[in-house]
Design goal:
Number of domains: 2
CATH superfamily of the largest domain: Apoptosis, Tumor Necrosis Factor Receptor Associated Protein 2, Chain A
Order of helices and strands: HHEEHEEHEHEEEEEEEHE
Number of strands: 13
Oligomer: single chain
CATH class of the largest domain: Mainly Beta
Radius of gyration: 45 Å
CATH architecture of the largest domain: Sandwich
Shape: elongated
CATH topology of the largest domain: Apoptosis, Tumor Necrosis Factor Receptor Associated Protein 2, Chain A
């Protein structure tokens, strides 16, 4: 009690016997409200509870990282952090293992995708070969607006028949300016291109077959369709047909030319798609 009196007298110069003063004095000694046994001046209670009291319950410093533990100050906190460090190291090791497994899985997936693509390509090539080895062929050109901007496109290769001639179709855009009006005109050019094929060695040369090309009018009522049909008669003297292809392909032979304005007058373009059919008639 004498020690308490001296503390109060030194800082306040007021006798401690006044009870009202005891309730207000900032330096009046009090026991820790959490019961840790420490006696401390009233004005230091808050700092003691927050920073020094061994019984203060605190949140883990890693609360923002998901730790929800509440720990007593000092010793318990150090123990908790030690355990947290051990768990963190284990988690990092597990993460590294998971990353390695993910990397291996991605490599396996990439290999599987490559195998799948090759199988799909083989299936597609087989289907195309079955479809393309005939005397009639249909070229579906989707995204014709983009093709017109690019001003050219070529079909996949066809064969006139099984063990026949190999060819493909070419599409290009010709732009001209009318002298009188000055307007820009666009024409669609369709070409027939002989290619170097697997069976050229056993085929007769020059190429001497009739080629008929049809641009399909996509009117729903087929009786009202007005297809554009052009054909090239069999003629072994065409320069692009007179010789067996030595390179990948011979010079193209024009099948027809039609203005885009004419295509727009009817339903040749539907859903940004046109259809071109080709028929090969062998000579007797």
């Amino acid at each position: 009690m004498l020690l308490m009196n001296n503390i109060c007298l030194i800082h306040c110069s007021i006798l401690f016997i006044f009870k009202a003063h005891q309730n207000e004095c900032r330096r009046f000694p009090l026991n820790c409200p959490q019961g840790c046994g420490v006696v401390i001046a009233r004005e230091e209670i808050a700092a003691h509870v927050e920073k020094d009291c061994a019984l203060t319950i605190m949140s883990c410093p890693y609360a923002q990282m998901g730790c929800s533990q509440k720990i007593k100050h000092q010793t318990d906190m150090r123990l908790h952090l030690d355990l947290t460090s051990v768990k963190l190291n284990k988690t990092e090791e597990q993460l590294r293992n998971t990353q390695e497994e993910l990397h291996h899985t991605q490599e396996k997936l990439e290999k599987f995708e490559k195998i799948t693509r090759k199988l799909e390509e083989k299936v597609t090539a087989h289907e195309n070969k079955l479809m393309q080895c005939s005397e009639e062929h249909t070229w579906k050109i989707s995204g014709i607006t983009k093709v017109l901007r690019q001003q050219s496109a070529k079909s996949a290769p066809f064969y006139t028949r099984k063990y026949g001639y190999k060819f493909k179709l070419g599409l290009s855009v010709l732009e001209t300016v009318e002298l009188q009006s000055g307007f820009m005109c666009q024409d669609l050019l369709m070409s027939f291109i002989l290619m170097k094929g697997e069976y050229d060695a056993i085929l007769p040369w020059p190429f001497n077959e009739k080629v008929t090309c049809t641009l399909i009018d996509q009117q729903e009522n087929q009786k009202k369709r007005e297809n554009i049909v052009r054909y090239i008669p069999a003629n072994p003297y065409y320069s692009s047909w007179s010789r067996k292809p030595l390179l990948d392909e011979n010079q193209e032979k024009r099948l027809f030319c039609v203005s885009l304005d004419e295509l727009k007058k009817r339903r040749f373009i539907v859903d940004d798609t046109i259809f071109i059919q080709l028929k090969i008639d062998p000579t007797d």
